[in-house]
Design a protein that fits this description.
This protein is an alpha/beta fold. It is 48% helix and 18% strand. Helix 1 runs parallel beside helix 2 and helix 3 runs parallel beside helix 4.
Length: 121
């Protein structure tokens, strides 16, 4: 695995574990399924496809985590709609791998305003 891929996987793992640990303080935390949304800009590029496989494999190690991956189809407008949908689904945290940051700033702010922790990859 290339260093860049390893660093991204480590960051993603940290985000998953941080979110789980951060939210696990409640009495019924053991019973709750934590919903993590991942807005991926595209799933066509080979390294992004591998990225998705890696994060799905990591999430599978944590039965208390439900991971939802969306495909922005390499279109900012589609990715904005995906993030809006994830906000409506009330995800517990949001991972965003954008094509461009400017087009997603508003919708990321909406997630932050909704008290959803956001990790931009």
């Amino acid at each position: 695995m290339k260093r860049r891929e390893l660093l991204k996987l480590a960051g993603l793992t940290a985000a998953l574990l941080t979110t789980t640990a951060m939210l696990a303080g409640g009495a019924d935390a053991q019973d709750k399924k934590w919903k993590i949304g991942f807005s991926q800009v595209t799933t066509i590029e080979p390294w992004r496809a591998q990225f998705n496989k890696d994060i799905l494999a990591e999430a599978a190690k944590h039965p208390e985590v439900e991971l939802i991956i969306t495909d922005g189809e390499d279109k900012t407008e589609k990715q904005v709609a995906d993030v809006e949908n994830l906000i409506r689904q009330e995800v517990d945290s949001l991972l965003v791998s954008p094509k461009e940051s400017a087009g997603l700033t508003g919708v990321v702010q909406q997630a932050i305003d909704a008290k959803i922790p956001v990790f931009v990859l």
